[in-house]
Amino acid sequence: MGCSGGTTCIDLAARLLCPKTGYALVAVTESNGINWYSGNDRNMLVPNCIFRVGSAAVLLTSDPVKRDSAKMEILRTLRTHHGTDDSAYKAGYQMEDADGNLGVALSKDLIRVAAVGIKRHVSLLAPKVLPIYEIVSFFFANSLLILTNFKGIRI
Asked: Which of 4, 28, 41, 106 is least crowded, fewest Cβ atoms below 10 Å from its Cβ?
């Protein structure tokens, strides 16, 4: 389970712990050993450098007695999914090259797809976490730009 699987598991564990007291251990590893690419395609060699061996673990609890000793508290979780967009689905894709070597290919659309995903995620998350003053300030600043017809400026 890679990095995106970790956020999904933390969300799932938090939801499972809501109705009753308990513990959940979420361990995330990112091992590229099974997807190590040994060919010559540059798009498929990059993941060998980026996705090496990394891991993280978190212990979640809903026990009210442990509340004071907790380092963090999950207030809300939000997941957005862009798998229905073909360019997002193919941004990082496991495939075979021309020689039949199996590996993960990263497309040139990866940065654009990531930017769209982050923008969508922040637009859904911001109203839930920002104070009302920041939301009103953003609304007025954006309205001012629209009314004064600044075409090249974006907030």
From this structure: 4
Best CA proximity match to 142, nearest among 124, 128, 154, 131: 154
Burial profile 17-47: b = 16 or more Cβ within 10 angstroms, e = fewer: beeeeeebebebebebeeeebeeebebbebb
d(CA 139, CA 125): 16
Look at the pTM and tell me if it is higher than 0.85: no
Instruction: Calculate ∠ Cα 114-118-121, nearest 5°.
Output: 140
104 conformational bin, left if phi > 0, alpha if psi -120 to 50, beta if neither: beta
How does DSSP assign 113-142, residue by residue?
HHHHHHHHHHHHHHHHHS-HHHHHHHHHHH
Fill in the amino acid letter for 126.
A
